[in-house]
Amino acid sequence: MKQEHKKTAIITGSGRGIGKETVVILAKKAVNVVVTSRTQSEINSTVEEIIKLTGNSNVLGIKCDVSIFQGQFACQIGNRKIWKQYYRHTCK
Q1: CATH ID of 8-90, from 1.20.1250.20, 3.40.50.720, 3.40.50.1470, 3.30.2310.20
Q2: Model confidence, pTM
Q3: Rounded percentage of the chain residues whose pLDDT exceeds 90
Q4: Distance from CA of residue 38 to its chain's centroid?
């Protein structure tokens, strides 16, 4: 049996506005999505909304601010740690 590989998208600024709309559209297309934002409350509400609207539970949220160097570094480290765990669960 051929293994099907799903696409994964990391969308910065996806807690609101155009980023949020983009991440919702991708999740509706069964893409694994990673929501990033500067505020945890925006991440939580976006993740909950995506799961409710799409039934796609392959959604992760990472708090980071990519507008500053320290935030970019934190996002990279967070992505690496979470990516390993995420990959184990979604890309078997």
Answers
A1: 3.40.50.720
A2: 0.70
A3: 26
A4: 13
